[in-house]
Amino acid sequence: MNKRFGILPFFQWLCRWNFGDFKREEFKKFLRMGLIFSLIIGVYWTLRPLKDAIFIQFVGKFQLPFAKTISVLALLPLVMFYTKLLEKTSREKMLVILPAFYGIVILGFSLLMSQVQASCDVLAAPPLYSIALRSLGYFWYLFVESFGSLVVALFWAFAADTTDPIMQREDFL
Predict the structure, then answer these.
(1) Residue 10 to residue 27: CA distance in whole angstroms
(2) pTM of the model
(3) pLDDT, tens digit, for every residue of 75-122?
(4) How far is Cα 143 from Cα 102, in angstroms, rounded to an integer?
């Protein structure tokens, strides 16, 4: 009996009872896609509670229904722009470009918000500074909403393209 030992065969054995048999290359793809999905969902589930908390701190809890309405209206042109961008760029490239963009912007937001927290009390801010803080709160809210709508949808579109056996057959095209 020539059994192979290692991490990959162990994970194949571990997943076999739940997902069935995988070929070696199929299983590697399964693991990579699982890792990518875990990272995307992990980031999203971290940002989601922060979205409301930061918005409430900068803008106020009574503006939350208004922000939800604005986010729906703002996502319409954003999704149209995103669709046009997908026509010009492959999903593989977009799966790198879009999360990189969001990562850079999140880093920018974190630096900006840490400066705001250190410099002034949000509730006792001067009027012009208060307007800037409210704007920052709205931009943050819309940004996180767009992450949930675009990046998660892009992953599932990519997953459907790369794992659907019918779409990969040459006679299907």
Answers:
(1) 11
(2) 0.77
(3) 999 999 988 988 898 888 888 999 999 999 999 999 998 888 766 665
(4) 9
